[in-house]
Amino acid sequence: MFWIPVAGFSLLLIYNTIPYFSFSKDFSFIEERSLLFSSELYNTSFYIHIAAGALCIGAALIQFSRYILKKSKAIHRISGKIYVFIVLFLGAPTGLYMSFFAKGSIWERSLFMFMATWWFVTTLYGLSTIHKRNVIAHKIWMMRSYSMAMTAVTFRVYHLLFFLLGWGHLENYELSLWISVIGNMLFAEWIVYRQSKNYLRSFAT
Questions:
Q1: Cα–Cα dist 30/37, whole Å
Q2: In whole angstroms, how far apart are CA 102 and each of 64, 65, 99, 111, 162?
Q3: What pTM value is reported for the model?
Q4: For 30, 76, 168, 177, which has the most beta carbons within 10 A of its beta carbon?
Q5: Radius of gyration of the chain from Cα atoms?
Q6: What are phi and psi of 104, to 5 degrees?
Q7: Residue 175 belongs to what H/E stretch?
Q8: pLDDT tens digits, one per residue of 79-115
């Protein structure tokens, strides 16, 4: 039941990303930042970042499917390599660059910088641990990485909820951002803690 809304909202985000690749400038996000989009570097980084985010979220859904993992480890490895490559070379670097120009105060920009950096670090640790054949540590670090990827989804869920509650745009944006990042991190740690307890319990018996 947990994965049904996760998959649903993830696919919705991917679907909503597609219209941007008409390269039309008639989107509120682009119109608000028209000066930034006049820069070729920012413009290119934006399209790379949203494509990377959509691909990462799609690949991650495959990664956490126990059915696929049991049926075909090759699919798990291939989608994992795609995810890691996209995060390390596309998603996180462009996210870090764009964070310097993010909307909000210096605190929100700092949070975006942290997100991009932590996304990169957790993914890199996920890669290094599996190369050392430490499967448990690999799962833990990839859960943390996935929690950062999913901020793109949870942010929009919170933003819609607070919009329906009548919050102002800037307050809604800032609160949704902070709750999404901190909430996702805490949720990932809770899953790690819960699974660690289950593993130790099964090992003891």
A1: 7
A2: 31, 33, 5, 10, 20
A3: 0.90
A4: 177
A5: 18
A6: 110, -170
A7: helix 169-204
A8: 889 999 999 999 999 999 999 999 989 999 999 999 9
